[in-house]
């Protein structure tokens, strides 16, 4: 009869077998590729000595194709909970060394269990993806497992933060779970995502394309916009997850975390008084403005490589998290296009879902013109921005630094969309359109009847600029709350955030709106 000591020894042996993952050779192969193992990734992510593993001994139930004799350590995925920055977080990490981290019935059940626990406890879920996709031997049971995960991704959206770090392959149906989460982090030269791989593409279209070119980290960070961050290593990706979590609350019922700040809330920056170029056609870097007003100049930029004509980032002001969106004059003059519209709308909606106050910094001539944009659906995509702004009930603060014309003014900073506090620098220009386009329309007859049309048109453009190229007409109507010296931007926004900290706004009850997707 076995003694208690024997049973404890048996437990330790079983744990040792599971923790060996796919075995020393497979783990060494992982390291040779410059990748960490699943357990090493979890150790880096969670605070020391806080990870509690669940379902270590779960086994698949497949008996087809020799699977009845196949051992897969921890069923190819390590799941559990721990603390990140001292806060409860649920984690799953797919183990590529164990049968390629393929997803079968029980693999999926392990993931679903921690997602259900995360919803019950109101805590984020972090997925570390490194998988060959569906486990073919399990057939429809594997596909059903993906469906269970997708359903929970949808149910959790806007309730708890969901962050995915793709640290290896993600192919076929597996990519949709990642795409349904809030943020995707990819590792350069290690991770890739695609619905159909290079082999299928080659067979169907005769197109020869490499893995990285089809769905690598930079492809999804620059072209598709599927991913939000591109990192140089597993270690950097995990550090980014930890940094990102530090800005967001545990769930939609909480406020974002607050940290101690040694940056004076009343700090001014005289350099902002001279940042704006004198010539309309000259550009400046709006990131300089952002860094000037946030705590210690620190910002975490998402979608850095995608649609760079608009900036989206997290930062802190007075130690409290804020979301910031800004037109970037250095790219496409800060115009809105299809990609920038999608990027902006999604960021607004995330901040609104998780109670993060929102600051918009505007310098925008309008929507990007051209048939390519019209055919790509700029009307539909562009409409997502006013929809998202109008829907949002978080504190919404606007700073107009220079130009904002026409439709871009309406959707980005009009009081009528529910903005709470609108500031403008003296350099702000608000009009239906710029002088170049407006003057020939307004003064068509006068220019045409002039003895010297070119000189007269030039005079009338200057008159148009004199009358409308300023913030004071809008301020006289109450559409702008304050015109301020640029150096005073941080103190004004800090005071506005404090004033709006008790904002309460309720929208009419409905199942959901029909956003123009």
In brief:
The chain is α/β, with parallel strands linked by helices and 517 residues long.
Explained architecture:
This protein has helices at residues 4-19, 24-32, 38-45, 105-121, 140-156, 174-179, 198-205, 211-215, 217-222, 234-245, 286-293, 338-353, 371-375, 378-382, 384-391, 406-413, 435-442, 444-448, 453-468, 472-476, 489-499; strands at residues 52-54, 77-84, 87-94, 125-129, 162-166, 169-171, 183-187, 192-194, 229-231, 299-302, 310-317, 320-327, 358-364, 396-405, 421-424, 429-431, 482-483. With 517 residues, the protein is an alpha/beta fold. It has three domains: 4-245, 2-enoyl-CoA Hydratase, Chain A, domain 1, CATH 3.90.226; 270-428 and 470-502, Alpha-Beta Complex (2-enoyl-CoA Hydratase, Chain A, domain 1), CATH 3.90.226.10; 434-468, no CATH class. The strands form three sheets. Strands 10, 11, 12, 13, 14, 15, 16 and 17 form an eight-stranded mixed β-sheet that branches. Strands 1-2-3-4-5-7-9 form a seven-stranded mixed β-sheet, with helices on both faces. Strand 3, helix 4 and strand 4 form a beta-alpha-beta unit. Helix 4 runs parallel beside helix 5 (140-156), helix 12 runs parallel beside helix 15 and helix 17 (435-442) packs across helix 19 (453-468). The protein is elongated and about 110 Å long. The N and C termini lie far apart (66 Å).
Q: Which word captures the global form?
A: elongated
Low-confidence stretches: none
Strand content: 15-25%
Highest CATH level, the class of the largest domain? Alpha Beta
Mind telling me which CATH architecture of the largest domain this is? Alpha-Beta Complex
Q: Superfamily at the CATH H level of the largest domain?
A: 2-enoyl-CoA Hydratase, Chain A, domain 1
The largest sheet, given as strand count, sense and whether it forms a barrel, is: 8 strands, mixed
